[in-house]
Design brief:
Low-confidence stretches: none
Order of helices and strands: EHEHEHEHEH
Number of domains: 1
Strand order of the largest sheet: 2-1-3-4-5
Distance between the termini: 17 Å
Helix content: 40-55%
CATH architecture: 3-Layer(aba) Sandwich
CATH class: Alpha Beta
Number of helices: 5
CATH superfamily: Response regulator
Structural class: alpha/beta
């Protein structure tokens, strides 16, 4: 039995479900939770205490940068991966300024997410 949890915060339903299915197979020791908005994520976090959160930048309401700030302020141990389709150094800089531990472009997520997640897991050992 494990208490490792992963929260996926993504407003696009199909991508959220696809990521959940893929990551469930990749990370069988994790319980995976889903949120469609920043507000939804904030409501879930106290109950699930995520080990890792994957946060989309372009969320309705609270955007991914602000959500990252809130999550890190309330849960400093959470590892946050900011996920976005947006290109440019400014997005990467803003992600890390917000408290993100990693930045992944959606175009590269299937190649980049596994190594980012595993690096977090290995650093905890």
């Amino acid at each position: 039995m494990t208490n490792k949890t992963l929260l996926i915060v993504e407003d696009h339903h199909n991508l959220r479900m696809s990521l959940a299915e893929w990551l469930s197979a990749l990370l069988p020791d994790f319980e995976i939770f889903l949120a469609a908005s920043g507000e939804d994520a904030i409501g879930q976090v106290p109950k699930i205490n995520p080990t890792i959160a994957i946060v989309d930048v372009g969320l309705p309401g609270i955007n991914g940068f602000e959500l990252t700030r809130i999550l890190k302020k309330n849960n400093p141990d959470i590892k946050i991966i900011v996920l976005t389709i947006l290109d440019g150094a400014d997005y990467k800089i803003e992600s890390f300024s917000s408290g993100a531990d990693a930045f992944v472009n959606k175009k590269e997520m299937y190649n980049s997410l596994p190594s980012k997640i595993h690096s977090f897991l290995n650093s905890d050992n």
